[in-house]
Design a protein that fits this description.
Order of helices and strands: HEHHHE
Structural class: alpha+beta
Number of helices: 4
Strand order of the largest sheet: 1-2
Shape: elongated
Helix content: 40-55%
Length: 106
């Protein structure tokens, strides 16, 4: 899905000390077989509780770690994160996010 300005496609490979014909051919093949897209989008939450729930309300290693804390430590973490998150005058939290999507083509 193209975004404003179109996808930003860039593939980088470690440069060998000496390029050989085989390395050049392999890199050329990889460029044809790998597609990379830089996706950017806006993220917004009603308030801090909405933000927190979206990051801890599902099964993930981070959510499991947070939810596994004792109640007092979980509350301390919540207050610490809340003090670092910038919110609007109405309490909303919004920011831009970026995802690097890579797929191989057969």
């Amino acid at each position: 899905m193209p975004l404003s300005g179109g996808p930003n496609i860039a593939i980088s490979f470690p440069e060998p000390h000496r390029a050989t014909a085989a390395n050049v051919q392999r890199r050329s093949e990889l460029r044809r077989l790998v597609v990379q897209n830089d996706l950017r989008f806006a993220v917004s939450y009603r308030d801090f509780d909405d933000y927190r729930e979206s990051n801890t309300g599902f099964a993930s290693p981070a959510a499991s770690a947070v939810n596994g804390l004792p109640t007092d430590q979980r509350e301390q973490l919540k207050q610490s994160v809340k003090s670092m998150v910038t919110s609007g005058a109405d309490g909303t939290i919004a920011y831009s996010a970026r995802v690097n999507a890579v797929r191989g083509i057969a």
